[in-house]
Write a structure and sequence with these properties.
Blueprint: H1 3-11, H2 16-27, E1 35-38, H3 41-52, E2 59-60, E3 65-68, E4 82-86, H4 88-96, E5 100-104, E6 108-109, E7 115-116, E8 119-120, E9 128-129, H5 136-142, E10 145-149, H6 169-175, H7 177-180, E11 185-190, E12 193-197, E13 203-208, H8 214-219, E14 232-233, H9 239-249, H10 255-258
Parallel strand pairs: 1-2, 1-5, 5-10, 10-11, 13-14
Antiparallel strand pairs: 3-4, 6-7, 8-9, 11-12, 12-13
Helix pairs in contact: 1-9, 2-3, 3-9
């Protein structure tokens, strides 16, 4: 690709997927030296972007790994000098001590942040068998946990989840200190908006992405979101962030395959 072509690529308007990647990166701002585990293509781009810009001490891993310096493309091998090796038992020690910030993809999420990745329908006779709870209970009570929803809809944002996999604020409070002491739910980033939690533990609309209205988000949510006054617009990528996303982190455009639209927003 010529220099002129590269410049044209970076100057092209931001897409919705790129706004979402920046929103994911922002959810890791202030973390410092933590393991960043992000599921999904856009979250994988977001954590790389955060580490390449304002959070250089993030460690990107979800298991036994070599610690590699640098920023590399999603979907390919890590290229760079190996600085360390991390065994699998070290990962669990870090998880149990709260040194991890995960972003999971829920099949269902309710107003209190309870997530379901296990079954749809009655547990004894489910309509759909999903992953099982996997590590979701431990994740949500031991260390910071956020969610990525690539298709914001009433199928995902439901009044009550069919099974609690990740623990929400209401259930953590019911379970007592064993579940609530280190319970730390972080932001929910979707293809339409960014959500956080109101002081009472219910999901709150923090910002809408460029081109999205508050009514669209409300209509796509199966419960009443907390809305405090005017809702801000999600931050758009700056020029350096667009260059990193398009030329370094995701030159093959995998981000556009995860979302239903490649809408230009700026």
């Amino acid at each position: 690709m010529s220099g002129a072509e590269t410049g044209t690529l970076v100057q092209a308007p931001a897409t919705r997927a790129e706004v979402c990647a920046v929103a994911v990166a922002e959810s890791y701002r202030g973390d410092g030296e933590l393991i960043a585990s992000a599921f999904g293509t856009v979250p994988a781009i977001g954590v790389r972007l955060a580490r390449a810009t304002f959070e250089p001490d993030l460690v990107l891993s979800d298991g036994e790994a070599y610690g590699v310096r640098g920023t590399w493309a999603v979907g390919g091998p890590a290229e760079g000098p190996i600085e360390s090796w991390m065994s699998f038992n070290q990962i669990f020690n870090l998880v149990w001590n709260g040194k991890r910030h995960i972003m999971m993809i829920p099949s269902q999420l309710d107003a209190h942040g309870n997530s379901n990745i296990s079954v749809i329908g009655e547990h004894a006779k489910p309509k759909v068998q999903l992953l099982g709870v996997r590590g979701a209970p431990g994740n949500s009570v031991y260390h910071p946990t956020g969610y990525w929803v690539p298709a914001h809809s009433t199928r995902v944002f439901v009044p009550a989840v069919d099974m609690v996999s990740g623990v929400g604020h209401d259930n953590a409070a019911k379970a007592g200190p064993a579940a609530s002491r280190y319970h730390d739910l972080r932001e929910v980033v979707t293809n339409l908006a960014v959500l956080d939690y109101a002081p009472d533990g219910r999901l709150r609309l923090k910002s809408v992405h460029p081109g999205v209205t508050v009514d669209e988000v409300v209509d796509a949510t199966g419960f009443d979101l907390v809305i405090d006054g005017d809702v801000q617009e999600t931050r758009r990528p700056d020029g350096e962030e667009l260059r990193l996303i398009r030329e370094v982190i995701d030159p093959r455009g995998l981000r556009n395959a995860e979302m239903r639209d490649g809408e230009v927003v700026a």
